[in-house]
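Okay, any thoughts on this one?
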Amino acid sequence: MKVCSALLALLLAACESAPAVRRQEAPPPRPEGGGRATVTVHLAVAGGPSRRVADFAGLTLAGAAGEYALGLDRNRVPLGAGDRGLATGRVPAGFYRGLRVVLDHVWSDDPDQGGVPLLLENASLLLPLPLSLEDEDSVDLLLHLDLARSSPEPVTFSPAWSLSLAEPLLPFDMVLAADGRSGGVCVFDRIQQRAHRTLLPGHAVVGLVRGLASNELLAVDRSTDEVVVFDLSRGEIRDQRRLPAGGGPVWASHLPLGAGIAVSMAGRRELSFFELPSMMLGERTPTTRAPGRSITSSALRRLYLLLPEANELQVFSTDSQERVATRLLEAGPVDLDLDEDGQRLAVVSSRAGVLQILDAASLEVRQSWHVGAGLGAVLFDPQENRVFVALAQPSSLVAVDLGTGQLSRPTDLPAAAADLALDPEGRRIWAACPGASTLAVIDRFQLRVRALVPAPGAPDRLLLPGLPLK
């Protein structure tokens, strides 16, 4: 069914009323070619059902000397998925008067609607954009699509479009979610609870560590066997270092006071230590079996490493980088966390279904409880005497009272949580649910899911740069 000409007129009228990005008079066109700027377009969608899909045929910036194409990361975008980092490109410095959006069509993939009824077809929209770009400028644009005005009848579908400059996102307001398979690192706005942009798209990032400053991110990339250093404030790669060949990295932890990172190398059965800020490869300490997740106590200057195949916890000195202790654990240890003082260690064992609380100095077991089958991530509550534990069967989150061993009522999750992180403000818990391509936002006090945030790929590692290093 073709969209009538009245609909297209309505769309164009909506575009004409869209707010300008920078409220300024258009300067006279100046010669282009004296420099280039980077422009990134993000898609933000509001209103409407989530099972609508847009096929973008092109995005171009309209300048004095013509239109300049921006490379589309993907041309078919689920409109319920939020900001997807739609396009980016290098364009000549100069004055731009608009962004042209070309859509093949917008359609529904809801089988209950009997196929794919056409909602909008062959729309070419020029959105007003008075924007001056200087040499080496880097600008983020938000392309807003409002579906709230759509009616049940596809032929009268009439979204509103607008453009705005994206506000800079500070590291304190970021949630970073890595996909250890192929999704890179997605940067989320923790206030607006939506995706902001993706770093290293298509790469398998298995480790996320905050650097010396909150705006510095170290990402361990299994796709290229590299440690990549990002400046989060600018979204730029600052440095890259190769890992030992064939290492098979699976995890990374910071060293005390941000002095370096330790990378778990399952393929080589070792810990590889990198110094900061030089990013030079230091010691390579063998482990008896393939290493897994780890965590560092700055107070005790120790690194705690899980060896899932051996059901062991190995402890390393962060000064000498040598193994100093070993502890046998319950079957299938999968995750660990330290309390706020770095004196107690929580370990969950999936196959045994057991939560153990260990003295971080002596490794003596203080408490042990059977929680349930298929345990996953674990997180200490920083103020209450309890621990949050994720379960796979069924997919849920429970709080374990460390005084009584009593379990809270389970909080249902869309899929098993592979990682948990506390919000810097202390009110919310973020849970990475890779099986549902979702981040769940949970009220820490009421243990209720407040939001489900769509995420690209299958996020299974979390980092909140606003949190201090333990």
Q: What stands out?
A: Helices lie at 5-16. Residues 1-33, 149-156 have pLDDT under 50 and may be disordered. The chain has two domains: 5-165, 171-463. The chain has one helix and 38 strands.
